[in-house]
Amino acid sequence: MARSCDQCGTSFVPRREHARFCSADCRVAWNRENKVADPVADVSALSWSITGMKEAAERVSRARVWDKARAFAVISETVWWVTIVDATLVRYHPEMYDRILCEQSAAERPAIEDTLGGLRFVRNQIGHEGGQTGFIRPQEGRREPADGRVAAWTWSPLPEPSCDSLSQDGREWELTRYRSYQAQLAGHLVGETFDLAASFLKLAAAGAIDVAESMPG
After folding, report:
1. Looking at per-residue confidence, does 23 or 204 come out higher?
2. pLDDT digits over 157-207, tens only?
3. Tally of structural domains, the chain
4. Residue 106 burial (C-beta neighbours within 10 Å; 0-12, 13-18, 19+)
5. Quick check: 51 and 91 in contact, CB under 8 A?
6. Residue 184 and residue 217: Cα distance in Å, rounded?
7. Distance of alpha carbon 198 from alpha carbon 116, whole angstroms
8. Which domain holds residue 179?
9. Is the pLDDT of residue 27 over 70?
10. Whether residue 47 sits in one domain with residue 19
11. Sequence-ordered list of residues with C-beta below 8 angstroms from that of 77, at least 6 positions apart, any chain
């Protein structure tokens, strides 16, 4: 899955699907030459995205419904916000993202990465199919989720998706996300998934905002 660096043209293998540069130096150089947006505006956008994610996750924790379609509507909104924040941090604040990830324990790091990869898979499938209530189900052994809480639903194991319409690189990325979904979401509680993802993203965002606000204006 090698690609060319947008700044120097060097071929490199990206660690993440959105990576455009072979090194931090190339990313900084490209940003300087192309006069990227004001850091203050960037921080403002990140701040409101974090607020949106937190509010959506809180709605999941409070929501009590019995209908699968209604439950998934609440869940899909939170998936959207989590993946927006994740993509923003990966694209514009990769050093802080990696720093906070490296500060987690050896067991937590793959769990965080697979959780976020699995949520990207859910986001893409929602976009392709216009809604996928089959992603969720009540806890095993219960006729209904505990007290009707959406957070007590679990993610369902899913068959491998058809990726025939995607390019070779696109297929590889989507299957990687699918494997992350199977590893870290399938069989796990919806509420626990969002807690893990949001906790990490809030830490990374706080670090990115602190760095941006400390820059000379």
Report:
1. 204
2. 999 988 788 788 778 888 999 999 999 999 999 999 999 999 999 999 999
3. 2
4. exposed
5. no
6. 42
7. 10
8. 38-214
9. yes
10. no
11. 56, 59
